[in-house]
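Encode chain A's predicted structure.
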Amino acid sequence: MADKKYPPPTNAPGYYQAPPAPTGSSRTVIVQGRGTTVVQHTSTSTNYGGQRQPAVVQPPVVVQTVRPAPVRSQGGLFDNLGKAFDSAAKDLGNIATTATHAVINPMDLMRNGNKILIQSMTSGLYLKVSEKGLLETSQGKGPIAQWVVVKPQQYPNTIKLANASRSSSYISVQNGYAVGYGSGGSDCDFTPSVLPDWSVMFESVQNPGSHLGVLPTGQLTAPAQTTKDTDASHFKIFLLGV
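Encoded structure for chain A:
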């Protein structure tokens, strides 16, 4: 007598308890992911006397979904005009800022006949001539603190500085001192030079290495002891008129 065959237990490992389905039926499971779609097919069979058979799981198929690029609105006529005006205003603002911060070479301010102010970088005071013809400093910007640039034709790189209120009084280096009662001779000749910070130094032509200088207190320094490396020798130039 042949042994009776029993169907395998429904809870055996590897078996899938599925509801009754027609022969050869299949189920499709779709799993959505970010930017991808996973399509998984699971088929079941009851071909063998109604016995539940192992589930056959097909390898998942990953499909890359391509999302259409968002369509940007081109905007209407007035919207585009508004953007154009905003861009133009920004450009004009940049130009105005550049113009505001533009730096003029001090040598262009010291042309023959120009009237200037000479401000000490260390003290913030201005060179002036006193009633006695002495060279001093003060906060005032009046005629006694104003200087007219004189450029001798034979020495284009040198200048003389005549006082605006006393045209016969020049800045001069005499006997080791800077004075304001020079008569316009060679002792009144200076060679100006511009530094990287646009400040200016005045070196005596007659006494090379000697410079005009002012201490933070406003007191003038001895030219022979004022070198190009001394902060006291740095001045700012302001143009008053031509």
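The chain has two domains: 26-64, 106-241.
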